[in-house]
């Protein structure tokens, strides 16, 4: 399914990849090495694809849409570099993280380079409305990351608290990708707002499934270690639901695992989460957001690009990796 979506904007997508390589040029060798390492690791590239599909769905393909897709990917990649340092992660996309391969200071500083390069490209696009959206989005992502940090090892987090974190940390970049794709294409307000809302709900669905996969995925499929969220003390929805819907003995074990980051109890935690119905609940919530995204997308004119956007909603919730 992912390849079918990509084929819809294959020419644009190749142009984005070429532009990214061009923009990674630096006179400092380490910047290029780390930049190429993490961008070259692949990933689904859902966010830049969202820009391209949104622009095409609004009949507005252009060089600026390609540049904008690269901007979104640079911002996403910068957050990954910083996240892996904060979370002390050692594996991403099936290979060592940049901080594991090099070191923490290098990862942070190259992340800063990618952020600033993104804004250099934005200036060349010369669209003040898009500049504002991206500036506000990166600020919200930073707040979301801090909020997630503050919530670590806490067991008094509500589902509402959790949803705010994934909205700010993940979903707003999907929202910005779809919205700015519409803006760069000169779409009218109604179409732009529908794409914006679709992007947000798609991002929420994507992150909810990601958090479920942390407890029932396979490391070789995920490209990262199963149970990373638990090891980092992140109270994600599967844990929160299981704490609320298990007997007192199991609930106490989960509370302690969150407080201590009890990765050594991972098998027991997975058993409790599986028995509680938490994974089904998390995926149900993901499907609800994917359905909301679809509702907004069905307002767009019918085209192969609209169909590909609808397929992205299916892809977000159908993932096993």
From TrEMBL:
Recorded coiled-coil stretches: none
Pfam families, alphabetized: polyprenyl_synt
Keyword Transferase: yes
UniProt entry keywords in alphabetical sequence: Magnesium, Metal-binding, Transferase
Entry-linked Gene3D superfamilies: Farnesyl Diphosphate Synthase
GO molecular function: all-trans-octaprenyl-diphosphate synthase activity; metal ion binding
Catalytic activity: 5 isopentenyl diphosphate + (2E,6E)-farnesyl diphosphate = all-trans-octaprenyl diphosphate + 5 diphosphate
Annotated EC: 2.5.1.90
Source species, domain of life: Bacteria
GO biological process: isoprenoid biosynthetic process
UniProt cofactor(s): Mg(2+)
Claim: Transferase is one of the keywords in the record: yes
Function: Supplies octaprenyl diphosphate, the precursor for the side chain of the isoprenoid quinones ubiquinone and menaquinone.
Similarity annotation: Belongs to the FPP/GGPP synthase family.
Name the record gives this protein: Octaprenyl diphosphate synthase
Organism: Pseudohongiella spirulinae
